[in-house]
Amino acid sequence: MAKTQLNVRVDEGTARAARERALARGMSVNRYIEELVRQDTGEVGRTFVEAAADFMKQYESVFAEEFTDARGTGPAEGRS
Which residue, 28, 50, 58, 71, is the most exposed by fewest CB within 10 angstroms? Predict the structure, then answer.
């Protein structure tokens, strides 16, 4: 994806906090702010939900077998 430069002005406390948080996460300030914006716009959540849906589709039969009794009518015996 092509990158676009964005210049913003923030107070020193905000800049310091951004640097500290980025350092604590082992990433650049640019990457840290990019991730914050993605979270705020829902991209991260949407990506998670799509991945979870793919996972469930792939392993649906395993879950059904594990959590359904022999008749297929409810939880397996001994489980609550």
Answer: 71
Orientation angle between helical segments 29-40 and 43-67, nearest 10 degrees: 70
Please tell me the distance from the alpha carbon of residue 36 to that of residue 40, in angstroms, as a whole number.
6
Per-residue pLDDT tens digits for 22-40: 999 999 999 999 989 888 7
Report the C-alpha gap between 67 and 61 in whole angstroms.
10
Q: Is 63 helix (H, G, I), strand (E, B) or coil?
A: helix
- Strand, helix or coil for residue 4: coil
Q: Where are the domains of the chain?
A: 10-41, 42-80
Q: How far is CA 23 from CA 48, 50, 65, in A?
A: 24, 29, 45
Contacts of 29 (CB under 8 A, 6+ apart): 18, 19, 22
Judge if pTM exceeds 0.70. Answer: no
